[in-house]
Structure formats: C-alpha cells, structure tokens
C-alpha cells in the first residue's frame, strides 16, 4: 500500500479523500491556491503546499506546480478527485512518466472515453444501446442536416469533449439548428479548447440513470447498482438517489450487464460510471462514461456500505477487489441534495461570500460531506458546491422523511443557498411519487416563479 498520497483537488472531495487515506494509514499532502489558504483540506492534511494563484489555471489545473509538489513531498500516488485534472489523459501520462501512480484508469482509456463521440463508438461495438445520431463528429450545417434527415427533430448538439452540461444545444427546426450548431461549437471551444460536436436524437423528458463500477488490475469487475440523477437544472445534477424509483429488476439487470460488457471492452480499471438515459418506453441508451469518482458516489456508499474512495486507492496500489458481485447487496434507500452557494429565487445566481455562522445536521441516517465552517469565505473562483447532504431510510419514503428533517437542521447564515429549493422538492407530490423526468426542475422553477 502507498505511504503518501497527494490530493490534487480542493473542497469537499479533498476532505473525502483525506478521510479515506487516514483510515487506511496513508499520509496526505494537500495542494491549495491563494484563495484556499484557510480551507479545511489544508488544515486536515498531514502536509500542505501553496501551488499558485486563485485562478484554477494557475493552481489546481497547473500541472507543473502539482508535479513539483509531488516531487517535494516524495508521494507515491496522486488522487485527482473530480473536475480539474481528473479526466485529463495528458496529466495522467505525466504522472506515470514521473513514477507517480495516477489514481484512476489508464491514460489511453481516459482519452478514449473522454471523447464522447469515441465513447459512443466503443459502446456500440460492445453491443450497448446508443441514441440514434451522427457517426462521430459533425463539421458543418450540411452534415448536420444529413443526420437530421435520418433521425428527425428534435435533436441535441453536444460537445465531444463535453462535461458539466456545457456545450449542449437543442434544436427543433432547420433555422434553430444553424444557430445551435454555432453556439455549441463556440461554447465547446471556450470551455474545453475543442470545438468538435456530435448530434443525437433529443429524448423528451427521459430519466438519467447511471451505473457505478469498480474494476481491478487483475480483470475483476463489479457493479454497485444504479443512481437516479434526474433532478437536474440545465443538465447539472441537483439531487441523486439510489435505487432509482423508475427501474424494474429486469431493466436493472440489462443495464448492469451492458455496463460490465463495456468495462470489459475498453479494459477499464478503477472506479467509473456509465451514464444512460431511460425513455418513457423504458428503453435505455448509453450517453457517456465518467472515468473518475463522481460527486454523487456517496449515495451508492450509503446503500451498499462500501467505501468507494478506499477501493480506488487499493485498486491503484495493485490490490485485488475486496468485493465480489454476490456479496454486494443494496440496503434501503439514500438521497443526496447538493447544497450550493446559489440563490434559487434569483435564477440560481452564484452567491460566494462569507458564512457568518453555520450548523450542520446530524442524528441517525444522515451524512454531510462539506468543507464549510463558521467564518469561512466561499471564494468566487470555483464551483459553488458547499455541502452534500445525504439521508438514508429503509425505503424511499423513510429516506425522504429523514431528508426533510435534515434540511430543517441545515443552517447557513450570510450567503444564499439551495436549501429552500431542496425543502420544496422534498414535499413536491411529483418527487414524492417518484414519477418525474429530467424536466422536473424546469417545471418547479416555473411554478414557483423562480425562473
Ligand atoms: P455532460 O457530460 O455535460 O454531463 P451528458 O452527456 O452526461 O453531458 O448529458 C447531461 C444531461 O443532458 C443528461 O443527464 C440529460 O439530462 C441531458 N441530455 C444529454 N443527451 C440527451 C439527449 N440525447 N436527449 C435528452 N437529453 C439529453
């Protein structure tokens, strides 16, 4: 096992990784930007080093500074968390060439699955259903029109290098297609430095269901069931739960089987997630693979009693998976609310600033993963996630009850948060019934006059 790991991230996920390391008896090195000098991950790691200015490009995305920090502290491995460099194949290659283990899959696999058009090709060749669309990248309007002739409107134009819901545009007509193509390409170029886009049939109000996998270097792979992430705003997840209220055991069997086939097809190692859309006829389609730990891994941990971050570290150290498929059993239901520094009543406007006082929920069946504390200043430079609030119950109804109670205990003073949005959703008849799709948040926002 490793003796010392560097964590190339910040916020709640840096804390999450530090916790896993401490429990495994591994020393931790935190890196931080100037804006994060007073952050909890800096205080809780065994060592910490400032790697640059507040802007991500000059710190958490600045590869030479991170590699230098790894050399100074003589670490054996780097955990990238999610976001920042987590899906950067070039960074993973540099780590390997500096003899530092990158805690994730092989760089070639990151590269292949990071190109979404290429990932769809891999899914197709593994026999996994994909959404009708273009065969790879679409260069211009003429090509786009040819695809539309085959699949018909509505369509969605998506960035091949996409992530975080950026670089996506829906079109219902030829006129809209032209501008959607241009804006998607421009947005993709600005966000990912790569304007390549592809086209898919746009499914009306599907559900987002994803399967968690773990695979070791010895050819063993297991799945840990699904997460339902259909509560999204602008293609970004706000609430996740496990299991999904929408799928039957036979759909689950088919989805997990398809997932493991794809994992085998691409030679996947470490923790990963295969994302699907489920349409109203209960047909499911692959949309992408995330080759890293995800924000919402925690709902799976609560239901399966597995520590996914420890498993990631063990796999990277070359150990055999400590679980086999037969011993992996779900227990009850878990829900996660992402508490963001955003004002739901003002179009979810980001609200960085100083938290005068905060108090986190506790009690039975509640988990809070958060880096905030009273007096902490939320910097404007990074994403707005303040805390992941999780609630467990023996069934979905009980989990909703736990979450309502926990949200009432969640107190933050000084900045606006998404707590009022979550309180509303936990009492919304559609959410409570379980019968909702990816457009649910749009409906809530409209009905509440929050648009
Ligand atoms: P990203 O990598 O940016 O997160 P995804 O491909 O995972 O992008 O899609 C994010 C969300 O966008 C999905 O959960 C879904 O709500 C919506 N979406 C993506 N593709 C389609 C599609 N073909 N039809 C309908 N909605 C889609």
Tally the helices. Answer: 15
Fraction of residues in helix: 25-40%
The chain-level structural class is alpha+beta
What is the residue-averaged pLDDT? 97
Name the quaternary structure.
single chain
Q: Please tell me what the overall shape is.
A: globular
Number of strands: 22
Q: Which residues form runs of ≥5 with pLDDT under 50?
A: none
Strand content: 25-35%
- Lateral strand order in the biggest sheet: 13-12-9-10-11-14-21-19
Rg over CA atoms: 21 Å
**Ligand names:** adenosine-5'-diphosphate
Distance between the termini: 51 Å
Can you summarize the main beta sheet? Answer: 8 strands, antiparallel
Q: How does this model look, in words?
A:
α4 (89-97) runs antiparallel to α5 and α12 runs antiparallel to α13. The mean pLDDT is 97. It contains 15 helices and 22 strands. The protein has helices at residues 11-24, 40-44, 63-72, 89-97, 107-114, 116-125, 141-151, 174-192, 249-266, 297-304, 308-316, 396-409, 419-426, 429-433, 440-448, and strands spanning 4-7, 27-33, 47-52, 77-79, 101-102, 155-159, 168-171, 197-201, 207-215, 221-233, 236-242, 270-278, 284-290, 333-340, 342-343, 349-350, 353-354, 357-359, 366-370, 377-378, 385-393, 411-413. Helix content is 35%, strand content 26%. It is globular, with a radius of gyration of 21 Å. The N and C termini lie far apart (51 Å). It is α+β, with helices and mostly antiparallel strands. The protein has an 8-stranded antiparallel sheet, sandwiched between helices. Strands 3-2-1-4-5 form a 5-stranded parallel sheet. A 3-stranded antiparallel sheet has the order 7-6-8, with helices on one face. The site of adenosine-5'-diphosphate has 18 residues, from β12 and β13. Adenosine-5'-diphosphate binds next to β12 and β13.
């Amino acid at each position: 096992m490793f003796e010392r790991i560097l964590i190339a991230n910040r916020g709640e996920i840096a804390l999450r990784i530090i916790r896993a390391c401490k429990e495994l008896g591994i020393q931790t090195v935190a890196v931080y930007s100037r804006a994060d000098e007073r952050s909890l991950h800096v205080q809780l790691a065994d060592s910490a080093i400032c790697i640059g200015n507040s802007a991500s490009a000059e710190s958490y995305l600045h590869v030479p500074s991170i590699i230098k920090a790894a050399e100074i502290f003589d670490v054996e491995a780097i955990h990238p968390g999610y976001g920042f460099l987590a899906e950067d194949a070039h960074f993973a290659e540099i780590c390997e060439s500096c003899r530092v283990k990158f805690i994730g899959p092989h760089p070639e696999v990151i590269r292949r699955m990071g190109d979404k058009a290429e990932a769809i090709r891999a899914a197709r060749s593994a026999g996994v259903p994909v959404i009708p669309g273009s065969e790879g990248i679409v260069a211009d309007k003429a090509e786009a029109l040819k695809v539309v002739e085959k699949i018909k409107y509505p369509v969605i134009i998506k960035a091949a290098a996409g992530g975080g819901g950026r670089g996506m545009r829906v079109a219902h007509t030829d006129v809209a297609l032209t501008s959607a193509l241009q804006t998607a390409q421009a947005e993709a170029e600005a966000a990912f430095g790569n304007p390549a886009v592809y086209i898919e049939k746009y499914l009306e109000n599907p559900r987002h269901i994803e399967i968690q996998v773990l695979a070791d270097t010895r050819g063993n792979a297991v799945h840990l069931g699904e997460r339902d992430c259909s509560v999204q705003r602008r293609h970004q997840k706000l609430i996740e739960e496990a299991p999904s209220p929408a799928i039957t055991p036979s759909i689950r069997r088919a989805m997990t089987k398809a997932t493991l086939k794809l994992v085998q097809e691409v030679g996947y190692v470490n923790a990963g997630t295969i994302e699907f859309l489920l349409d109203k006829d209960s047909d499911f389609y692959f949309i992408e693979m995330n080759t890293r730990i995800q924000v919402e891994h925690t709902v799976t941990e609560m239901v399966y009693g597995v520590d996914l971050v420890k498993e990631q570290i063990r796999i990277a150290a070359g150990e055999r998976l400590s679980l086999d498929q037969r011993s992996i059993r779900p227990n009850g239901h878990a829900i996660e609310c992402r508490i963001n520094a955003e004002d739901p009543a003002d179009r979810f406007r980001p609200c960085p600033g100083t938290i005068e006082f905060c108090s986190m929920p506790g009690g039975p069946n509640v988990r809070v993963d958060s880096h905030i504390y009273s007096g902490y200043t939320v910097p404007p430079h990074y994403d707005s996630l303040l805390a992941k609030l999780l609630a467990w119950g023996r069934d979905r109804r009980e989990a909703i009850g736990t979450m309502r109670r926990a949200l009432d205990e969640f107190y933050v003073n000084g900045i606006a948060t998404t707590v009022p949005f979550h309180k509303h959703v936990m009492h919304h008849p559609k959410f409570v019934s379980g019968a909702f799709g990816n457009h649910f948040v749009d409906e809530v926002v409209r009905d509440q006059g929050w648009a």
